[in-house]
Amino acid sequence: MKVPFLNLKAINQRDETELLAACERVVKSGWYIQSSEVSSFEQAFAEFCGADYCVGAANGLDALRLTLAAWKVLGLLKNGDEVIVPGNTFIATVLAVTDSNLVPVFVEPDPDSYLITVATVQEAITEKSRVIIPVHLYGQLVDMPALLTLAKQHNLLVLEDAAQAHGASLKGKKAGSWGHAAAFSFYPGKNLGALGDAGAVTTDDLKLAEAIRALGNYGSEQKYIHKYQGFNSRLDPIQAAMLGVKLTRLNDDIQLRRTIAQRYLSEINNPFISLPKNIDPECHVWHLFVIKTDHRTRLQTWLADNKVETLVHYPCAPHKQEAYAEYAYLSLPITEQLQHQILSLPIDPTMSEIQVSWVIDVCNHSLVSII
Length: 371
Ligand SMILES: *Cc1c(COP(=O)(O)O)cnc(C)c1O
Prior knowledge:
Blueprint: H1 8-13, H2 16-29, H3 36-49, E1 53-57, H4 60-73, E2 82-86, H5 91-99, E3 103-107, H6 118-124, E4 129-132, H7 144-153, E5 157-161, E6 169-170, E7 173-174, E8 181-185, E9 199-203, H8 206-215, E10 220-222, E11 225-226, H9 237-267, E12 289-292, H10 296-305, H11 333-341, E13 342-345, H12 353-364, H13 366-370
Parallel strand pairs: 2-3, 2-4, 4-5, 5-8
Antiparallel strand pairs: 1-9, 6-7, 8-9, 10-11, 12-13
Helix pairs in contact: 2-9, 3-9, 4-5, 4-8, 9-12
């Protein structure tokens, strides 16, 4: 029995006919930039998230970057303002901040849910704070009602990093509809993945949506008239067409991921493995199923020896990366401990029940061999 971490080929094979038909439609259309493929996906995704507007971007990092840049041109942010980010996130969250000449302020997550909390965010607020970027890490929403109350008290903008949380919802409200804006990635391995790079921003703020769209199009709203010093970061029609097909399957895939997660949660019972805690099963979309163990190397080797592929998300926190040497002095004990303990088990909507059982068995029988 072999269990790959994520079988992208199998995932996309399920929609092969529709994907090829959509591809053919784009090829034959003669429109390869900013076509109706893009606007129809944007509309469908805004509706899916419960947001008024969706603006496509080239990728998730750009979706974050464009939003911060738009707040700057709209006069809501300026160079040197502070942006609160989780210490334990994928580096793109932080890259968007520093690329915009803003200053990241790292906060610790809750060690059980892996998510930032209002308490840790509150401690990080200073006179210079202007934005909070809650990352809905691994597929579960940060406590948005409480975070928004705090943000309002301090007049802070909230940009959800929803790259791992398409379809996750809290109190019936989805990721992408909570903050002043939300950035999504459609990187192929995300729960809603394109067949290449793609991203989008959702928001209810028309002015923001317009500024983002212009900034991603050389700062232009009208051809050859340039309002801003923008960039080129647009959603490709071909990827929009692929995403339109894949969006119709997203809810079913979330259910498949939940079924697997539920089995892991109820059937993995190895005292050396701690399962995700503080989980809201109604909310979590299980982009990743992340366990903790003090014996990670041995557990990961044991799983690999038994043909179960695992990964670590992420083995090195942004403030410990060479790219951010200026933050290496920071002490974020929870984040730093997590990076040594966490391990992501395979969770993929195309996994068979037998494969899920195999992962569970190998985890449960690792007791003798790993200790
Ligand atoms: C994937 C990801 C991004 C970046 O998205 P890309 O499309 O790869 O640029 C940003 N933030 C988080 C939390 C992610 O997981």
